[in-house]
Amino acid sequence: MAIVKSGKVVIVLAGRHAGKKAVVVKTHEEGSDDKRFSHCLVAGVARGPRKVTRGMSKKKVEKRTKCMKPFIKYINVRHVFPTRYLVDMDLKKSVDEADLVDADKRVDVKKNLKKIFEDRYLNQKAITSEKKAAGSIYFFQRLRF
């Protein structure tokens, strides 16, 4: 039984993105030929959106979300901390594993991710499921401890 499933919000524990939140795109329970350990492909926010208050105009809110910076990488399952939250962003279609090998295609994947994250951040009220809405709110908040 796997805890780390696609759509689960996790916290990265090791490496450059330690302490950042990410969403699991795909898991490899048995490992693969090049990575002989259970690992998962995660897409996360390296730099989150800036603080927004109620008095700000829509234009200013959009400008403050533009600074969001995504990351995507393979991580050992032991180096992620699964949270109780789920997000219903459909990242499997936008992230093709073959594109991650080439550096130029990887940039395009990150641009698509940025667009998806920005859309979700700006349209959080459109989420129907209460559980998924809570996950989306949690994903874009700064980690406090």
TrEMBL record:
The keyword Transmembrane helix does not apply. Keywords: Chloroplast, Plastid, Ribonucleoprotein, Ribosomal protein. Signal peptide: none annotated. The keyword Plastid applies. It comes from the Eukaryota. It is found in: Plastid, Chloroplast. SMART domains: KOW. InterPro entries: KOW (IPR005824), Ribosomal_eL27 (IPR001141), Ribosomal_eL27_KOW (IPR041991), Ribosomal_eL27_sf (IPR038655), Translation_prot_SH3-like_sf (IPR008991). Gene3D superfamilies: 2.30.30.770. Coiled coil: none annotated. One of its GO terms (cellular component) is chloroplast. This is KOW domain-containing protein.
